[in-house]
Amino acid sequence: MSDKPEKFIDENGLRLDGRQINEIRQMKIKIGVISRADGSCYLEWGNNKILVAVYGPRELHPRRLQKADSALIRYRYNMAAFSVEDRIRPGPNRRSIEISKVSREAFEPVVMTHLYPGAVIDVFAEVLQADAGTRTAAINAASIALADAGIPMKSLVSSCAVGKVDGQLVLDLNKAEDNYGDADLPVAMTQDGEITLLQMDGNLTQEEFKKALEMCKEGCRQIMEIQKEALRSKFADDQLAIEVPDEMVESIDIAVTLEDVVEEERETEVEAEASAEEITKSDAEAGSEDAEIEDAEDEYSVEDLEEADADEEILEVEEEPVDLIDEEAGNEDEKVATEGSETREQ
Ligand code: UDP
Questions:
Q1: Which residue CA neighbors atom 17 of ligand 1 most closely?
Q2: CA dist 33 to 51, 128, 145, 161, 205, Å?
Q3: What residue ranges in 155-238 does DSSP mark as E strands?
Q4: How do strand 119-129 and strand 72-79 relate by DSSP bridges?
Q5: CA of 60 relative to ligand 1 center, distance in Å
Q6: Within 6 Å (CB) of ligand 1, which residues are found?
């Protein structure tokens, strides 16, 4: 372990790593890095490197551990043997068991466990490289991995710590500040500022404690923005990377064919509309009844006209016999009368 620095904050108010007292370390996030997991996240925060995998909700075995009305959250925080300068003995220890417990409790108020009775949600947080603030970094990564797994939550959880060095409160402690500082206050909270984790090492006055909480709140607010942005860009990337399955390609083909039909129908409609428009236009141009009649006559065929002429002839022919009959009848009458007179005369 390196020696205690003489000063943590220089005359310009900057810390050993060049940050302001209320500035968080650079954070990088990659989501969906473990294909086997339901959700996963790799997070770098300063020199911390954390990998989180989420499995579930899935059926909990052994069954006697199942909760009848909700899912069980299991959280395992583990530091890799190579994560710090001195090799860490593999397996759980007092510290990792404690961190696992408080981290699980940080998520219990937000994860909607009542939706999955009898199930378990497993969160594995592996610290690959540690540089102070690993529990807060793991919580930030776990929050994203849970969201990546599609587990319903009332809010994301964001976490950071405030400490005290050189008599001043500083946000997001680095290793030297954590190891040699006068206080360490890790906090996790929801979007609404509901605190789901609060621990404290060292001593703070009441005033300092209040101010430290305010600094944590602001730090968590910034972290939540980063978390949300990471999730948003993951979602956008996923949309771009969607592979279209074969059966969908087929249905796309069908859709294209249908589209053609629809397009054809539309074209026909457009043509019909256009000719209707033309008719209306020519009607308007004609402007008189005569023109309309002429137009109407134009519509008769030669056969129609011939037929009409033939009808007229028939009418004429029909009229003639009536006259003829009448005339003939008249002649007959005359004949009869003549005959009668002849007879009378006879
Ligand atoms: N650390 C270490 N060996 C250990 C435990 C912790 O070197 O067995 C270092 C590690 O860098 C860790 C830091 O001490 O990040 C602070 O540890 P702490 O227990 O305060 O937890 P953290 O701040 O990481 O949540």
A1: 132
A2: 9, 14, 10, 26, 43
A3: 158-165, 168-171, 183-189, 195-198, 201-202
A4: parallel
A5: 32
A6: 84, 88, 95, 130-135, 175, 178, 184
Which atom of ligand 1 is least distant from the CA of 184?
20
| Low-confidence residues of the chain: pLDDT under 50 | 250-258, 261, 287-302, 305, 309, 311-346
pLDDT digits (tens, 9 = 90+) for 155-166: 999 999 999 999
For the stretch 144-154, pLDDT in tens is 999 999 999 99
The owner of tokens 């060095």 is 165
- Closest listed residue to residue 71, CA positions, set 40, 42, 38, 97: 38
And the tokens for 318? Answer: 């029909």
Pocket test for ligand 1, best of 25, 82, 84, 170 (most atoms within 8 A of CB): 84
277's tokens: 């428009």
Determine the distance separating the centroid of ligand 1 and the alpha carbon of 202, expressed in angstroms: 15
Q: Which residue has the tokens 């209040």?
A: 210
Sign of CA dihedral 145, 151, 152, 153: negative
What is the Cα–Cα distance from 160 to 136, expressed in whole angstroms? 5
Instruction: Output the pLDDT for position 266.
Output: 72
In angstroms, the CA 64 to CA 220 distance is 38
Q: Could you say which DSSP state residue 166 is in?
A: T
What's this model's pTM, rounded to 2 decimal places? 0.72
134 CA closest ligand 1 atom index: 24
Q: What is the pLDDT of residues 203-256, one digit of tens each?
A: 999 999 999 999 999 999 999 999 999 999 998 877 666 655 565 554 444 444
